[in-house]
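Exercise 7 asks you to align residues with tokens for two separate proteins.
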Amino acid sequence: MRASPFPAAPIDDADADDAAEPQLAGPQTLQAVVPPEFAGERLDKVLAQLFVQFSRARLRAWCEAGLVRMGEAVGQPRSKARAGARLLLELPEEPEAASFAPEPIELNVLWSDADLAVIDKPAGLVVHPAAGHWSGTLLNGLLARFPESAALPRAGIVHRLDKDTSGLMVVARSLAAQTDLVRQLQARSVSRQYLALAWGELPAPVWVDAPIGRHPRDRLRMAVVAGGKPARTQFRALGSCQSRSGPVTALRCVLETGRTHQIRVHAQHIGLPLLGDPLYGRRGAHCTLRRQALHAVLLRLRHPRSGEAMQWRSPVAADILAQWSELGGDTALLDGAHRDEPSDGAAA
């Protein structure tokens, strides 16, 4: 059974389209309902918001090929979306079409109930299928571990970690929970803390409030750019050591927003590039770590059903501890980072 990509933005219950609901064409068809806030917008733009695993250009081409229906009518790219209209997307035989399939991937599940699950993600695991990674992702593993997640947008995924960032993620196991978790994230009431190793020194805690967007020349990278999306991160030094390539600081990082590569971009922006970071790191510095030194150590949120305040902690990944030790750092400092309380000003 396939995952149905309803919007991962806050979801409001919507009435079905007034016309008789068309029958699904089969296992290669995905469906969604147009949320009220998207009413009147171009259909290709709405599709790009609801089916984020596909590019807008590809979705536009599928509209033009007659593969998208809105209610009983074929949807054209410039068609105006109707609130509550049911959308059907018939997937052609392309790599993307096979990406929503369950795979037996070992997952470290720290907590699970009928509403949510908390995963301790290893470095190297891609969260969501995308170009070059149409299988072997966390999403594929969730579909195998929790088969009911096939009925949820993105199999219940509400936020992401970069492929080579390790640590804590929460995923939903019901549509009501997913709606609530997305709203908590958008309200910035979810607390997420990370441990990072960075080149340089940080004499005092600092909030970085700098917008992030696509790099103007390198489309693989993000950057602090005028007109980017608002982004805010706090950095606080836990300790430092001296390496042959200069000082290295262990940082506690608190996210107030959740932009692509946010910690990595903001750290570079203030002159503290992360160790091992292939995109934003310091070239030529001695480092044996084969990925960015970034680990999600703490996650706090309110349970979507009970409202209870909950938290989970993850010990710093072994390869980051080993790198810190190799540089002469005190491993006890990092090993206890996940037990520390949030710094002043952290999101509640």
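Second protein for Exercise 7:
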Amino acid sequence: MQQSAEERLTSAGPKRWLVTGAAGFIGYHTCERLLDAGQSVVGLDNVNAYYDPALKEARLARLKGRPGFELLRVGLEDRSAMESAFAAGRFDVVVNLAAQAGVRYSIEQPSAYVDANLVGFANVLEGCRRSGVGHLVYASSSSVYGANGVMPFSTDQNVDHPVSLYAATKKANELMAHTYSHLFDLPTTGLRFFTVYGPWGRPDMALFLFTRAILEGRAIDVYNYGRMRRDFTYIDDIVEGLLRVACNVPGRDPAWSSAAPVPGTSGVAPYRVYNIGNNEPVELLDFIAAIESAIGRRAEKNFLPMQAGDVPETYADVSDLLRDVGFRPSTSVAVGIGRFVEWYRAYYRV
């Protein structure tokens, strides 16, 4: 039986971690789990206004003052500040979760994605290679699968046809990471997250928007007339998989062949890419029904066409994650949504 994230962290001993995007949804939960395991964590975030900074500050307030936690208010695109952070940090492991998120926003504000996701990620890679970081784990996205219609999505598949700039920047991150892994022997692991949800989640995501609207008696917008399927993945499962992978430093894949290259591994670099998804896509209308059940109130629905940059379905193949670190997400939508609604009511006092 494979070790849990906590067992892996304990057996490896205390390390010094940099978690970028510490005020964000996944970053906050990752910092909490690391601190619970007795690790030393430097959280980095510029607390931008893409969504309500008050929610980000509330997350940070729960981390501040905890033994082993230090906060740096820095943006990834600030090269000199990032150089200083890495020079002073002496980090063993870097978890890069900071990014400009959102598929639809990338259509309106493309420069924000170039700055944070491309320039910023280049600064992270440079900091890692110049300071001798032992392992870089970074957030990719299920959106890289783009126009791929073969289900479930596998890291063995080609992902050269993104349908949003956000997805293109995440694909670029994977290519940039491979280059640094090859040139500088920097172990890197990319994680393609599938529709993450749960307590302290992002206000621009469907679960947050739907819950707020239903509680306020407003109609919800249901795109593609409800004919959407998503591999909704609970936050605790995301962090468990992330931390197990972070403790599993990749090497070169001896089975890799240039004659039939597998995109998720490499024979010339210590490089790996994994999906982290619930491995069980859910119809959007069933997802809404679970929210209605948790709240105890029916939603009024506005049925609308598909939005630009969106895809009709996501579905993760997590067989390599299960094989390598012994983990696959398992939290049901009913359980996860129930926990979110409980948190939402307590946090907003509704």
